[in-house]
Amino acid sequence: MIDGIAKIEESYIDKIYEIIKDKNLTATVVTFGCQMNAKDSEKLLGILEKSGYSIIDDENKADFVLFNTCTVRENANQRLYGRIGQLKNDCINNKNKIIGICGCMMQEKDEVDYIKDKYKYVKLIFGTHNLYDFPHLLYETIYDIYVNNNEKTKTIEVLDSSDVILEDLPQHRKYPFKAGVNIMYGCDNFCSYCIVPYVRGRERSRSSAEIINEVKNLVSNGVKEVMLLGQNVNSYGKGLDENITFANLLNQVANIDGLYQVRFMTSHPKDFSDELIECIKNNKKIARHIHLPLQSGSDKVLSDMNRKYTKEKYLDLVGKIRNNIENVSISTDIIVGFPTEDESDFNETIDCIYKSKFDQVFTFIYSKRTGTKASTLPSISTDEEISKRFDELLNVTKEVGTKQYEQYVGSIFEGLVEEEDSVPGFLTSRLSNNALVHFKGDKSLIGSVMNFKLDECKGFYYNGSVAN
Ligand code: SF4
Hints:
- By secondary structure, the protein is α/β, with parallel strands linked by helices.
- Helix content is 37%, strand content 21%.
- It has three domains: 2-157, 3-Layer(aba) Sandwich (Rossmann fold), CATH 3.40.50; 178-405, pyruvate-formate lyase- activating enzyme (Alpha-Beta Horseshoe), CATH 3.80.30; 412-466, CATH 2.40.50.
- Strands 2-1-3-4-5-6 form a six-stranded parallel sheet, sandwiched between helices. The chain has a five-stranded mixed β-barrel with strand order 15-16-17-19-18. Strands 7-10-11 form a three-stranded parallel sheet, sandwiched between helices.
- α12 runs parallel beside α13 (343-356).
- The protein is globular, with a radius of gyration of 23 Å.
- The N and C termini lie far apart (52 Å).
- Iron/sulfur cluster binds next to α7.
């Protein structure tokens, strides 16, 4: 069945190619949000490239602009509308310019209706559940423009759910030496502030055979590092016929010949098992970095967020990870200003940051997301109080993170060289623990694994030198 769908979708790619092959068209995908969206965008770009588009990085110049949206924060919608609004004149001057929108935000009917009403020049809309059908929907749009001379004006298709996940359509990877691999889709956790379970659907894991196959293929095409992706990778395997845990899968992936390193994202603390800690400890090909979203250090707020762990359980877990995995770094996400958070709750969060010694903290001010349980709760704090807490949070995370980074100055670590630095003649490398090292080097080194001496700590990165 899936094979049949893949063939049909590929046939649409061929049909698009036949229509546009002599037209010299360009395309771009603008990505908002998380790693999962970035991964989806690689697939969308791959399809566009195979259909005959040249990929560029300029939404004003591109003949086809696709916005892959995120809806985790309400102000993300406003950012999107700003960007689409700026393209209005281009679309008026060029009737063949296509603006498309896909991703999580399109799973919300009100947003789709708003776009249909206010941005009539948007020609293509689809959601997260029919991303696999992009070649077909793009074909309909292209056919209408170039064969039917804009008779129909719009192609809109958003599904409420779907079991179809196609992984083997073309992909356009940003880096030739590293790649993301989806191991599961959706989320069953219903954290009270989060819209993801509503727009991405229930958890569905891919079979281990499919995942292993994909990684082997990537490795044979020159990939050195993979990042296993899911909203909650620790619950991988639920609902599959095979009896497999995330730790089993991680070990199997790490043991693939020719693969240098494996990372994963994101972990839910409630499902992080001792088995997984042992697995990371015993397999050096698994990166020494764990992203473990805390969100709040207050038991009351954690319960209101429906996170299903307490501060004590979280700190126990951090202790176990740090005691067992040498040189591990732990990063986290923290939301400040959740509706039921008061000053003493916030102080619990600060206490947790000091005790966990986070290497890096991604900080967010709570933003109400319509459609979630938390959106009905009135805030007990004023904007000024929340803003004051946010400033304090930034100061504490900087203080704690810098101390963590400073402990390794003078040491030598291995890293994968990723890209050119903004300073000419310099490159950036990523260490196993996710820290970045800036060093002097020629761009021919991009994609190599090298040893680096960490000469100087610059807060959240190092200045270093090659140490072979
Ligand atoms: S675990 Fe919670 S925050 Fe993460 S995607 Fe699922 S519902 Fe959202």
